[in-house]
Design a protein that fits this description.
heterodimer, A: about 110 residues, alpha+beta, three-stranded antiparallel sheet, B: about 220 residues, mainly alpha
């Protein structure tokens, strides 16, 4: 993964290379929502993040490909149900992203 | 800068990187708060359950025997479960989600162990007290009953514990309601047995109505 820890970023550039998978508004929203709510259904997530089906599907697929979320499909009340859950790698990536942001703030403050 | 990308980018160093980082953290915090504000618990169902509990308390308070008193509350529990299930299904349908998806499933799974424990302990206490002898304690006055001494506090505390843990991933109102049920149960344990029905009215009636109204108003019905 092409990313550099914010801790090693110089003060001159101030902005480290973020994890490209996480550093995107919709995907960051998905990870934030799953971090707060645990396993969440497609419909709940779509409602919380105000996304279209297509938009959520595309970005969820990228997170799944990166191994950051797990997707479970099953039936509930005879209705197909897709559920997302943060994986350990996803939790770690989310935590690293938060660390990077805090590092940027610390660096900028000197 | 594309709108879908957080403000902070290496290729376009911001004038104030810390401000951009703050914006990203704010976005994360807001999203997490919004997720937590989403609940499958039906507020209108809570109001209805509270109303029936108040009626049940009035009726139960007039019963001459432990068995009759317990029968009223057992019936009320069944009515409450039915109301809860129906209004939860209605709310889920309103949001176009299956009843047992995401938040709804988490809430039910979190609540069920406490409900099961409550039912089992109720049978144990009632059975130990009344047993084959029938309503012997009624002759000594209902307030002398072990069931009346223990069951209201136990029901309130177990329900509170179940709601508090089931509501961990829900809006703050849910665990707050659970905590107040726990408090009501603890107070009922310390209070005279004669106040048991009043505590049940205050808890299953009053708290359900108040919190149901708040949930209905602020969290989607």
């Amino acid at each position: 993964m092409a990313r550099t820890s914010a801790r090693s970023a110089t003060k001159a550039t101030a902005v480290p290379d973020f994890d490209a998978v996480v550093h995107q508004r919709v995907r960051l929203g998905i990870l934030s929502a799953l971090a707060a709510g645990g396993a969440t259904s497609f419909t709940d997530l779509k409602t919380v993040l105000s996304l279209t089906d297509g938009n959520l599907s595309v970005h969820a697929r990228k997170l799944e490909d990166a191994g950051y979320i797990a997707v479970k499909k099953r039936f509930a009340d005879r209705i197909p149900l897709t559920e997302f859950e943060l994986t350990a790698a996803g939790r770690a990536a989310f935590d690293r992203y938060l660390d990077d942001m805090e590092a940027v703030i610390r660096t900028a403050r000197g | 800068m594309p709108a879908d990308r957080p403000a902070l980018r290496r290729s376009e160093p911001a004038v104030a990187p810390d401000a951009a980082a703050h914006a990203s953290l704010r976005f994360i915090r807001d999203t997490m708060a919004r997720t937590a504000a989403f609940t499958a618990v039906p507020g209108w169902g809570g109001i209805a359950m509270g109303a029936t509990a108040l009626v049940a308390a009035t009726v139960a308070g007039r019963q001459p025997t432990v068995t009759a008193w317990l029968t009223v509350w057992t019936a009320e529990a069944l009515v409450g479960v039915t109301i809860g299930a129906i209004t939860m299904a209605v709310k889920a349908r309103g949001h176009a989600v299956p009843l047992l998806s995401g938040q709804g499933r988490k809430f039910l799974l979190g609540l069920l162990p406490a409900v099961f424990a409550g039912a089992a302990l109720t049978l144990a206490i009632y059975g130990a007290e009344v047993g084959l002898a029938g309503d012997t304690y009624a002759r000594q006055g209902l307030t002398a009953s072990l069931s009346l001494r223990l069951l209201p506090a136990m029901w309130l505390m177990l329900y509170g514990a179940g709601v508090a843990s089931a509501g961990m991933f829900s809006v703050r109102l849910i665990p707050a309601m659970g905590a107040l049920f726990l408090l009501a149960g603890a107070l009922a344990l310390l209070a005279p047995a004669a106040w048991g029905t009043a505590f049940l009215a205050a808890g299953f009636g009053g708290l359900h109505v108040v919190f149901g109204a708040l949930i209905a108003r602020h969290h989607g019905g």
